[in-house]
Amino acid sequence: MKATAIFYVLIASIAGVNAAAIKESQNALKTVTKSRLAATVTAHAVAALGAPIPTLDSAVTMVHAERNLVGA
Predict the structure, then answer these.
(1) Cα separation of 3 and 53, whole Å?
(2) Which H or E run contains 31?
(3) How does 36-56 read in b/e, with b if 16+ C-beta sit within 10 Å?
(4) Structure pTM?
(5) Is the pLDDT of residue 13 over 70?
(6) What local confidence, expressed as pLDDT, does residue 27 receive?
(7) Span 31-56, mean pLDDT?
(8) How many CA atoms lie within 13 A of 5 on its CB side?
């Protein structure tokens, strides 16, 4: 009986750690997706103004620079 209880506690703790890791991964993915979306929107806005289209890397750099200015 005691071994079964220990087993269930172990499984529950592993599940809790996995749930936290999954949540952290989801948040990281959301951040990356938002950055890429912002970079794409920035690139299209720059193209609409008639300027040369920046590469994705430079657009992402611009987004990060904007975030740093805003403090986000």
Answers:
(1) 64
(2) helix 2-48
(3) eebbeebbeebeeeeeeebee
(4) 0.38
(5) no
(6) 78
(7) 71
(8) 2
